[in-house]
Design brief:
Number of helices: 4
Structural class: alpha/beta
Largest sheet: 4 strands, parallel
Number of domains: 1
Helix content: 25-40%
C-alpha cells in the first residue's frame, strides 16, 4: 500500500506505477487505486471505478485475492493485485491480512496524524506501547 497526500497524486502515481510495470512486462504485479469522489487532472475526470475497472465496493476482495489460495485458479483465472495506491481512503481500519508493507508519501508530523499511522501500523497496540520513530 502506498499512501499519498492527495487524490491527484494518487492518480498520477497509479498511472506511473502501471506504466513502469507494463514497460517491463511484469504480469504478476496488478495495481489498484483507491480514493473517494472524482478528481479532475488536465481536463480529464478520474474516479476509482473508472481506473480500476470495477465498483469500489469490490476493491478489498480483489486486493485480497491470492491465486495460490484459490483451488479453481487453473480453470478460472483471476488477476492478482499486489500494489494499492490510496488517498484519503483506507488509512484507518483497512482490515487486510495480506498487507505487509505500507509506504507513506505524505507528512505525518502532527499528533493526530501520528495517532492515525500508529493505529494503522499495528491495530493490536504494539506501537502504542513503544515510541514511534519517524
Amino acid at each position: 500500500m502506498v499512501v499519498t497526500p492527495s487524490r491527484e497524486h494518487a492518480v498520477r502515481l497509479y498511472q506511473a506505477i502501471r506504466s513502469h510495470i507494463e514497460e517491463r512486462g511484469l504480469t504478476d504485479y496488478g495495481t489498484l487505486v483507491a480514493f473517494s469522489g472524482t478528481v479532475k487532472i488536465d481536463d480529464i475526470e478520474y474516479t476509482e471505478p473508472k481506473l480500476n475497472g470495477f465498483a469500489d465496493k469490490e476493491l478489498p476482495d480483489r486486493f485480497g485475492y491470492v491465486r495460490a489460495d484459490d483451488p479453481s485458479a487453473p480453470t478460472v483465472p483471476k488477476r492478482e493485485y499486489r500494489i494499492l495506491v490510496v488517498a484519503e481512503k483506507y488509512q484507518t481500519s483497512f482490515d487486510q491480512p495480506l498487507l505487509t508493507t505500507m509506504y507513506v508519501d505524505k507528512p505525518a508530523w502532527t499528533k493526530s496524524r501520528l495517532g492515525t499511522w500508529t493505529s494503522v501500523l499495528d491495530p493490536a497496540g504494539f506501537f502504542r506501547t513503544m515510541p514511534v520513530l519517524l
